Amino acid sequence: MDNSVRNTKKSLPALAQTLFSVALMAVFSFCILHTNATLSPQENTVAKTQRKTFKVVKYPTPNIAHDKVNDVKGVILHHTAEPTIQHSLRVLTVGKRKVGAHVVIDTDGTRYIMAEAHVVTFHAGPSVLAERNGCNYFTVGIEFQGNTIEAPLTQEQIDSAIEYLRPIISRYKIPLSNIVTHEMVRNAYKQKYPHRRCSGKVDITQAEYKRFMSQLRAKL
Ligand SMILES: [Zn+2]
């Protein structure tokens, strides 16, 4: 008798403790579920994309047009074909060669912002896109560090470029058909003006361009 009373006395607080723990867990789980449920699909997407951000460094280029504003209608993809990011940053900022870009994306996804989208930079040379000449004045130029003939773009470069492009595509309402490679706009120029001289290095490959575009399409 004594024993059973003692047991009951001992088991009652233990039972209460267990019940309290279960109740606490239930409330906690409800809160978590409720928090997730209150996020709209868009907010969930934003949360996902915000988790994946890359380092952004301002690295202005002097090779810009001072007399015109970029009438942004497209995007031109390039690879730098330089051995290191330091070489690329130098080539795209020295005054002598007068070449630039809006952004250079390193293999780890770091973005070097050389100019805002509304600024004209000199990255395309003689070029035609959608029947229009002089792509420098109506496109954004992206340079990927490296040489895609020797090695493909890194996943970080692709993700970082998509992160960079998403707001630009939506702000300027750029159709995907106007996101092309340097070689494509140069070839269009050659077709339009077969007798004019137009030389240039082979740029980002078609295979890498296609791989990039399929990932971009999936993430827009
Ligand atoms: Zn190029």
List the helices and strands and how they pair.
Blueprint: H1 2-38, H2 41-51, E1 56-58, E2 64-69, E3 74-79, H3 85-91, E4 103-105, E5 111-113, E6 119-121, E7 128-129, E8 132-133, E9 139-144, H4 155-172, E10 179-181, H5 182-192, H6 206-219
Parallel strand pairs: 1-5, 3-9, 3-10, 4-9
Antiparallel strand pairs: 2-6, 4-5, 7-8
The structure holds zinc ion (ZN).
What does this entry look like structurally?
The chain is α/β, with parallel strands linked by helices and about 220 residues long. The protein folds into 2 domains: about 1-40; about 55-220, Lysozyme-like, CATH 3.40.80.10. Helix content is about 45%, strand content about 15%. The chain has 6 helices and 10 strands. The chain has helices at about 1-40, 40-50, 85-90, 155-170, 180-190, 205-220, and strands at about 55-60, 65-70, 75-80, 105, 110-115, 120, 130, 130-135, 140-145, 180. It has a 6-stranded mixed β-sheet, with helices on both faces. Strand 4 (about 105) and strand 5 form a beta hairpin. It starts with a helix and ends with a helix. Zinc ion binds near residues 78, 182 and 203. Zinc ion binds next to loops.
